[in-house]
């Protein structure tokens, strides 16, 4: 029976409310899933979560701040992302004072959710921006992290390869606010990000986009999250102090965060291992679930 993604639970965390839900045995070791930029928790597909929970974990997914059903920080205003990006590309660091919040705040949100659920330590799994947030959690709150899995994420170092032009374009193009326009746009975005031919996934894209639309769009939140990424800068040097057992998972055809970015994370975290998924872009199509879930579960077992 499919869960109703419009009726999650809510927890107070770091001064805001986060929408979340859980899968599996409440007494099992907790595993927190963190999604990426402007992406709701339902992008962690229910069947993916159930399969991961079936490996012996209490799987928790949630909407980051400013997305889905979690608190929207509308009073913070909309940052000038183009200006911030231009500043960063010119080699001028963007300070935290220039943006409503940073990835460090979002990391603290996630730890606040663990607090609300009475969880002392959890396995942390993040995808894309969620992987960067996971890195921040492990750096800022090392005692709360059993293991870390960083999926299709970067250290944020400025000398790493940039996104492919088409992927960067979909990242920066405004989101349509009407249902049909949004669905068509998401179909285009996912086709670009997945890379290659995935007809089975493409057949599901419209329904997935409609679910996100029904839960609510928030383009201003997307802009604030993107500004948070820009202002958070590079974690490369700090990664040397990361203590949690770390696994890096990356696709070899990722058009948005090239695989060299994942290799950079693995190279700078002491003892980190890397799993490369052949044919995977910047998404988790069903064909990747088995190797990704095997990697996550196997790594978590090693870190118990």
Automatic annotation (TrEMBL):
It comes from the Bacteria. Residues 29-283 form the AB hydrolase-1 domain. One of its GO terms (molecular function) is triacylglycerol lipase activity. GO terms for biological process: glycerolipid catabolic process. It holds the Pfam family Abhydrolase_1. PANTHER family: AB HYDROLASE-1 DOMAIN-CONTAINING PROTEIN, HYDROLASE, ALPHA/BETA FOLD FAMILY PROTEIN. This is Pimeloyl-ACP methyl ester carboxylesterase.
């Amino acid at each position: 029976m499919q869960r109703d993604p419009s009726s999650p639970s809510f927890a107070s965390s770091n001064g805001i409310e986060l929408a979340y839900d859980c899968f599996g045995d409440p007494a099992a070791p907790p595993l927190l899933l963190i999604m990426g930029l402007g992406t709701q928790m339902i992008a962690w597909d229910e069947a993916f979560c159930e399969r991961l929970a079936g490996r012996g974990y209490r799987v928790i997914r949630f909407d980051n701040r400013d997305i889905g059903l979690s608190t929207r920080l509308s009073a913070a205003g909309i940052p000038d992302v183009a200006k911030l990006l231009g500043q960063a590309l010119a080699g001028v660091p963007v300070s935290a004072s220039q943006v409503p919040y940073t990835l460090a705040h979002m990391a603290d949100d996630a730890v606040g959710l663990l607090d609300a659920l009475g969880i002392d330590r959890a396995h942390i799994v993040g995808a894309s921006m969620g992987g960067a947030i996971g890195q921040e959690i492990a750096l800022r709150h090392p005692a709360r992290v059993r293991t870390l899995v960083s999926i299709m994420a970067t250290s944020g170092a400025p000398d790493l390869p940039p996104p492919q032009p088409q992927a960067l374009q979909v990242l920066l193009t405004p989101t349509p606010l009407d249902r049909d326009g949004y669905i068509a746009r998401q179909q285009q975005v996912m086709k670009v990000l997945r890379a290659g031919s995935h007809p089975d996934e493409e057949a599901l894209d419209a329904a997935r986009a409609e679910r996100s639309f029904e839960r609510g769009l928030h383009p201003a939140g997307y802009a604030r999250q993107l500004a948070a990424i820009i202002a958070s800068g590079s974690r490369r040097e700090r990664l040397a102090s990361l203590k949690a057992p770390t696994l890096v998972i990356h696709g070899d055809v990722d058009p948005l965060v090239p695989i060299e970015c994942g290799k950079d994370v693995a190279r700078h975290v002491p003892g980190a291992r890397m799993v490369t998924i052949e044919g995977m872009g910047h998404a988790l199509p069903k064909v990747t679930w088995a190797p990704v879930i095997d990697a996550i579960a196997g790594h978590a077992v090693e870190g118990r």
